[in-house]
Amino acid sequence: MSAIPYRQYANFESAAKEPTVKAQPLVSVIIPFLNEADVLAVCHRRVCEALSKLQQYCEIIYIDDGSNDNSWKMVSQFKHPLHQIRSLRLSRNFGKEAAMSAGMKAASGRCVILLDADLQDPPEYIPDMVQAWQDGAQVVEMQRRERHGESWVKRTTAHCFYRFMSKISNHPITENVGDFRLMDQKVVNVINTLPERTRFMKGLLAWPGFTRKVLTFDRDPRLAGDTKWNYPKLIHLALEGITSFSTKPLRWATMAGLTTSAIAFIMALIIFTKTIVWGDPVAGYPSTILVVLFLGGIQLLSIGVLGEYVGRLFIESKQRPLYVLMEDAMTKPTFKYSDS
Length: 340
Ligand code: UDP
Ligand code: MG
What we know:
Layout: H1 6-10, H2 14-17, E1 27-33, H3 40-52, E2 59-64, H4 71-75, E3 84-90, H5 96-106, E4 111-114, H6 126-134, E5 139-147, H7 152-168, E6 177-184, H8 185-193, H9 201-206, E7 212-219, H10 231-245, H11 248-278, H12 285-318, E8 325-331
Parallel strand pairs: 1-2, 1-4, 2-3, 5-7
Antiparallel strand pairs: 3-8, 4-6, 5-6
The site of magnesium ion (MG) has 5 residues, from loops.
């Protein structure tokens, strides 16, 4: 069913008395958050302002990823006269990737936009993204031009990681594009069917393909509060990304094994010949220990790489749900809008 235009919908008085009259929202904005009580009110206001420019019935879905501050109380009370506000509460912190998956499962809009609650992804770009989608793009990726408020180390490591990922992954992941993006309902339906538990979202979101458009934007600093990411978490995310989207590290381990075996074989031949033909004594302790350490290192590294993949298999085989919903609150539009 196509969305009812805003103006017409606003005058649709009978809808208030007839709760079964349902229109499909044009856009579902998905906002996962963890302890963001300081920014949620401003976030809600700015998202609503951006949506009002579309003049269409929309939906905002907040996902509380196990906050222990006032955040849930705030979002579950948000309402809007023309838009549907849905708040999902996960039973504990499952991570942003799981929270976004919960939002995408719940979304009913004709397209879906993923947004951070801390306003680093400015909601003011929503109308441009929707325009690009209406012009035919099924995925609108928002590429960061500047990353204000982020340290040099974070910017450089993020840049290197994205480059590395797009080199080793079997399908392209656009550089410097985070989760902030618009996806057509068709794309979201595909992502919802991907069953994996270890979810590297940037890869999963890129996996279905479809027609893409890249828009650039300047990433703002966080409005308030601290980032929920630290380096151990980021390293975990990077390993997750690499092992869930490529088997190339396993190939590298095999290649390293083959190369060292070949070198060892050639060296053995040389040493053997030298000893037999010229009667040279075998070179001493330093070279032996170096070779032993080198081979030991390569072996341990390869076992570690193998272990990463086996670990992922173990987690996948348990088939646990991605997240557990604890509460689900919905405020329907009140249809009180006057067109005068
Ligand atoms: N977030 C979440 N669950 C987590 C960590 C973060 O839902 O376990 C949310 C967070 O509240 C914010 C968004 O994900 O809305 C991005 O997180 P953050 O700003 O901390 O990351 P950064 O922008 O520094 O990469
Ligand atoms: Mg942030």
